[in-house]
Amino acid sequence: MNAPPSDVGLIGLAVMGENLALNIANHGFPISVFNRTTSKVDHFVAGRAKGKPVTGTRSLPEFVASLKTPRKILMLVKAGTAVDELIEQLAPLCQPGDVLIDGGNSLFTDSIRRAQYVESKGLLFVGSGVSGGEDGALHGPSLMPGGSPAAWKLIKPIFQAICARTPEGDPCCDWIGENGAGHFVKMVHNGIEYGDMQLIGEAYDVMKRGLGMTNAEMHAVFAEWNTGELDSYLIEITRDILAYKDEAGHEVVDLILDAAGQKGTGKWTVVEALHEGMPLTLIGEAVFARCLSAVKEERVAASKKITGKVGAFKGDRQKAIKDLGAALYAAKLVSYAQGYQLMRAAAKTYHWNLNYGGIALVWRGGCIIRSAFLADIKKAFKRNPALSHLLLDKFFKRAVSSRQTGWRRTIVTATKLGIPVPCLSSALSYFDGYRSERLPANLLQAQRDYFGAHTYERTDKPRGEFFHTNWTGQGGTTTSRSYNA
Is 322 labeled as catalytic in the residue annotation? Predict the structure, then answer.
């Protein structure tokens, strides 16, 4: 006897695919699954999915035929050509109005292209960011869907049933926008994740190498931070990591090689910031910090040949820890502010109508950067939906102003101790730059005009009028075209 048609289908039974399939089934939605290696289907249906409304299929035609129409097909395959190849295989098997959903970590420009292509076939496309790792996939991820607007009403009941919830019970999933908007917002989420992780790493380094603290002492600090304004998933897991010991009693964090990996989403964020002309300085430093960590052998060799003139910490350790917490909070705000500036610029470029407060709500649960802090961002946009910069919100203005002194002292302390804090310090430089009425770009413009006749604007003339000086007396009056890269 054939099983009744499934509400949704899922292709790709790696860790995320398996857990999302179980999540969907556990919420009462019958689901069909397929995997290119069909033995994985058999193993899953007979194992973790046994007794659940999960139908295993052994070919794409069988898979597609097992679904209710309009079909909703969630693709959890490796980002890149694998997604395009799967779309090509599915399109002839589908009917107009069916929805193809890419739940992988795809580059948003690929999603823009795929939305146009899939829609040209009479189908609907969704590119959805999925955050929360394997645990989130099983128990409630943060979901960031974007693509064909008509698809939202079809997938909304499922997506908002399986996603995480805020402490107030709101779903951590909402429609983000057209074509590639969902994957763009997920990309920015991952960039902020890079920044948060590096900031926490810098705080750890200052405490460990600078203040000479044990893992147990740092565990206590992170545990305390996680009960206050720094309450977040990443602070929570850092607390746990610092207390973890293996069977032999070794503190595992000290046995891990200091060479960070990355999958590229942080780099994508920085590249897009460059395209948009947005100063995403903190996330850029976080990406470069991982790159620097990766040249481990070079650093080991350099450590034996290059010495720095640094001293030992001789101050009040408790005060230094308090300052460090203030610096971490303030720099974290700058990271989010920069991420929001990038989303604002991209929304203008790609004609997206992004709900910035709603994005903070989507990130409050399930995802890697979930934190109590995001509730304050949601409130900031509720107070002023047209808020141009988080640093201009009254709550965050006071929050940063009250932490400036500790933030600056932390960077001075780290510098004296020879401990690199690229994200903490770049965040402060951005803050000081953003609040500066005048920056030294006037000299820079003079230099550009001197060697390249690139022209400049004047403080005593209206914006948009450009001037050139014959600095050497031999340059003439011909100028280069003015432009912004």
Answer: no
> Using one digit for the tens of pLDDT, what is the confidence trace for 68-119?
999 999 999 998 999 999 999 999 999 999 999 999 999 999 999 999 999 9
Q: Which residue out of 18, 40, 72, 193 is catalytically annotated? A: 193
18, 40, 72, 186: which is the annotated catalytic residue? 186
CA–CA dist 5, 218 (Å, integer): 53
**3-state DSSP call for residue 122?**
coil
Count of alpha carbons within 13 angstroms of residue 236, beta-carbon side: 11
- Closest by CA position to 329, among listed 456, 420, 226, 418: 226
Q: Is the dihedral of CA 211, 213, 217, 219 positive or negative?
A: positive
Once rounded to an integer, what is the mean pLDDT over residues 454-461? Answer: 95
pLDDT > 50? residue 148: yes
Half-sphere exposure of 145 (CA within 13 A, CB side): 28
> For residues 102 and 129, what is the distance between their CA atoms, to the nearest angstrom?
8
Could you confirm whether 461 is annotated as catalytic? no
Nearest CA to 284 out of 407, 132, 430 is that of 430
Query: pLDDT tens digit string along 317-354?
Result: 999 999 999 999 999 999 999 999 999 999 999 999 99
